[in-house]
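Letters spell out the chain; backbone shape is given numerically. Take this protein:
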Amino acid sequence: MLKTIPCGDVRATHAGQSVTLAGWVHRRRDHGGLIFIDLRDSRGLVQVVFNPELAPEAHRIAQSFRGEWVVQVEGVVRLRPTGTANPNLPTGETEVYATRASVLNQAKTPPFDVTQDAAVDEALRLRYRYLDLRRPQMARNIRLRHRIVKFIRDFLDERDFVEVETPILTKSTPEGARDYLVPSRLYAGNFYALPQSPQQLKQLLMVAGFDKYFQIARCFRDEATRADRQPEFTQLDLEMAFIDREDVLQIMEDLYSGMARAIAPDKRIPGRFPRLAYDDAMERYGSDKPDLRFGLELCDFTPILQQTGFQVFRGVIASGGAVKAIAAPGMAGVSRREADDLVNIAKGFGAGGLVTLGLAKEAPSIDALTAEHVRSSAGRALSLDEVKAMAKAAQAKPGDLLLLAAGKRDLVNNVLGRLRTHLGEKLGLADPNELAFCFILDFPMLEWNDEDKKWDAVHHPFTSPLDEHWDILESNPGAVKAKAYDLACNGSEIAGGSIRIHRGDLQARMFKQLGLSPETVQAQFGHLIEAFEYGAPPHGGFAGGIERLAVLFSEGATSIRDVMAFPKTQEAQDLLFGAPSPVTPAQLKELHIKVVDAP
């Protein structure tokens, strides 16, 4: 070894000992006699002192040191003089007095400062990712991710789960996104697909008798470019046999609560994870992954406004729509421009508009509101009695601003849910030191595809309906609820899964309801259907994103790209290697592929 101790591990207990260090020159300070070097490796940094009177040759060599040079130093650990200790460094009580030094490698000046976490253009960071990973925040993020994965493996190993790797080259099957295809050289015109998830493979493992399986799985999805998405990502994939939904929910709660306590001990978590039905979550929060760190719940004004004189609202209600609102605390005094900004934000979310009702903070109470206390973008179209009733229903106070949206219920919930999230951030309502985990249950099983005039699976065709809903699968498919569940935290989906259909006759009913012909079923899922004929146990599981979890636990990460060692850009490009890139005509010929110009 070129070093006897990591730089970041030097402590006061090592005082008087000779050590050999190796690492990067983090910072150099020449005081005209003494030279001070902060030497950094993966464990941290330590101060090294070069004294020309004690070690003139080492001092001479240190004069040439520049930032990010790779150097080796031998020296003696000493306690820093009284009053000069650095309490911000684990090594801050000590310094190493150099006796010998050597340059292992010189370095060009980096295109950005790697010694601190100052803002740097992301494209530049990704182009020089190997330098970006030297920055303190990025180094912490990658180590945090390691700790998350290690905790998962240790936790599941203690509970008799077996880690099984599944193939990367597999068959293309419909799973909700485009597959990445890999041409076969040996079988001209045929392709492998990279797995979107190990869904069918983990179900086959249940048939094989591995009743507790997990994997830290790489997944690939050729999706349209979207914020905070990557073409390849990592998830915890887990499946269990001879269980039902409650068993999976319990293992999820134990895993994620234990992980939060171990990885992010300073953050608060609920004693038990609250559970919300999907319909309830959408009605109250406008989201199936609600941020429960603050209230600001959606309030339904439809019953109050059945006979309103405001014809816009009355027409929406008469056509079967809804009028709902959120009460923004303390925002009644916003300027006209700020109110218009909120309206434009709502329009950006799909709303036709937004009605604002400001309740003057001068009003003694909601009951004491007068017309002069109400500032409404709807003018006097809403009566004072209606305003009071709505304010009470929303538990608003004088000084609050009611934001009303009208239209189809699903659209209104979505618009106000996104506006709720926006206001939660704008008003600082979410406590950054809280992890508000919650389960979302009873998702719809099917959704109507108006374009193709058929029912589609909300999750995937192997998800089981609730036991009592098998009886209405054919007669009332839109009312069927699934044995599916998501784990949400702070407005993000962290994990999700379901209990699967394990009986062939029930799976056949589901395929038929989805409009899949026997030929299509055989071509796409024949291997799984055949396996079920050999005795498939009841089973279910979940998958949880590693990157999203690392962002949640981190300090400062704002994107999953911040917790991945070598991510792609938001446009799915690798700026470090220059991928995707052309290949040679010889390679294409070998794969029996011809490239045609894009239309």
About this structure: The domain at 136-266+543-586 is CATH 3.30.930.10 (BirA Bifunctional Protein; domain 2). The chain has a mean pLDDT of 94. The CA atoms of residues 22 and 72 lie 4 Å apart.
